[in-house]
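ARCHIVE CARD
SHELF: 3
SLOT: left
DATA:
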Amino acid sequence: MQRKIIITDDGSKTIHLPELNEQYHSKHGAVNEAMHVFIESGFNHILKKEFLDHLAILEMGFGTGLNAFITFLEAEKCNQPINYVSIEAYPVTWSEAKLMMYPEVLSVEEKSPIFSRMHQSNWEKPVDISSSFKLLKRKQFFVEISDIECFDLIYFDAFGARVQPELWTSEIFTKMYKALRHKGVLVTYSAKGSVRRAMQEVGFDVERLPGPPGKREMLRATKK
């Protein structure tokens, strides 16, 4: 499938899939969306409640590596150790990812080796990105996930329900619910009614939150 690099409204880049008319991030701002949905509404929300010896994060869709990279940067600021597991069925190549230039966009050029290592590390093998950030990339379909009470936070960053409705069902959210520990949190950019109802059906408490630029709302779900 053809992949085209585009510049979003905040000046950061993402990958556009012309055949699906879908992007890896919002056209209104890739970095702004990631910071709002996953860092501000997920990562910071968890840390306001308690400091964890190791915050365990499951990312559904490694994609360009933006979420993993900004999580590393934010965790470094507050000295929060991270165990980060990321799922991806169709990995982006390093030659594509480095064209995103996220270290330059975020004005952390000195962290370019970190971004490079995240992409060039082997799949299925844990790697220490730093002394406090452990990364495991798993090449896997969402339906294959079977983790039980392993994570404190899930970044649910799948392609939209318009193009991949099978990823936004009660079947998948049951797997997410089981993967979270007690009071674990899932955040996603989606605010569709069908998505909210699927989350509620499997037992989540679901909040509607203000969305990132270009979206009125997003969802945050907490395991009861």
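SLOT: right
DATA:
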Amino acid sequence: MCELLAMSANVPTDIVFSFTGLAERGGVTGPHIDGWGITFYEGKGNRTFKDARPSSDSHIAKLIKSYPIKSEVVVSHIRQANRGCVSLENTHPFTRELWGQYWTYAHNGQLSDYEEKFASTRFNAVGDTDSEMAFCWIMDKVVAQFGDKAPDDMLAVYRFIAALADEIRALGVFNMILSDGEHLMSYCSNNLCYITRCAPFGKAKLIDTDVVIDFDKETTPNDVVTVIATRPLTKDEQWNVLGAGEWKLFKKGKLLIG
């Protein structure tokens, strides 16, 4: 299956360290060789980089590992294809516009008997993955529930999405990351964990490659950064493991729901 990576922070922060570890799983320490992608939010805009090549052998991935793009919300994915061919249009994360915001989504898992359930009208899949069809279905359901204007209570929106994710999980494995550029939601089917880093900061070493960082030298005492991943990325930190059906919602690095 695929692997997920996401970040929520209270200040613009780069994800070079975590992405360096994830990229190794795309062909070196893991079998996820069927493409990768990453989306960085900057205000209301975002920039997305995708490649159908393995992340461990991608010139674009090398750029991401060497160029510290600062962002408060990041969503990333490395793919091991099971539904849909290996192609750029099937590479996560996927993005759609709703309520004047870009929503970004990535999925790890495999679903069955979903074609009829995921019939949608306003949002349509470009590729042929179960993942993108599920995303479009979620977005359709959100519009049907809340209308064409964003509600004042965005937490209610995410609680509704969590209920939809419960329905999807009945069709197979559904680990999901979803963001509207402000909030970051993680939903677990079987493999998802997170860590929130805040003062006092220490050192951390990646599991997948010999890279060490001293966060105390890279941060300020007020920084709060949460990283979500399919599996822990570091050896010497305590990651929080989510259970089946459990979900979390973060904003500016801090836990809102969960």
